[in-house]
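Example 3.2
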Amino acid sequence: MRIDWSIGHYEETASELAPAAELLVDEAEPLPGKRVVDVGCGTGNAALLAAVRGARVIGVDPALRLLDVARERAEAGALDVAFLAGEAAAIPVGDKSADVVLSVFGVIFAPDAEAAAAELARVTADDGRIVLTSWIPDGAVSRMNKVAQEAVLRALGAPAGSPPFPWHDAEALNQLFAPHGFSFSVKEHSLPFNAASAHDFLEEGSSHPLAVASRQILERHGLAEDVYMQMLEILQAANEDPSGFRVTSRYVTATGVRTQQ
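Structure, written as tokens:
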């Protein structure tokens, strides 16, 4: 199911992911004057952080509304960032035009991993780096999302299809990028999500574009309430904070450099 990332209110999710963007930019070290392309930039978290460091930044995203939000944020911060419509498999910049290519939970949603890898490699300079984040598919949030995704496929009568590309796995990344002369290493991190309760966490996440698109389908088929209760059960069982609600998701930062030119 292809998602329109302009629907819902992704801004709320973006604010929760800000710590991961900060960590990624720290690891990428976009020095002043360096050329940075942020793929799947969304509301501009990583792009703006790189610009604050003095990098020359282009943010790329298919969601026009989110690009407008990113432009407003850049203007408010007096930052010079170009935001362009595009996606991981069609990045609107020239060959080898980026010293650093960033993607904070962006390229992992690309429908065609091979096409995305080819584009990331194409726009990266010979001495440049690709630095991205990807969720490790375990934990409560991952299980909750899987329940919703499987319910949507059943409702649509669609086959399960192939599993998504494991962007978190170093071996898989190295195989994917080997034809382009890149070698990847990964570091594991974790990101806690907090709310007053599991119910509040679900409500706060209900404006995420994936949640909006899924709910529309499930409601049409009379499945929304049942799926909601399953998701709530998973979250309540995994709660790490008896006085409120907290679940932790694991993710990796993956850094790729050219080994062949």
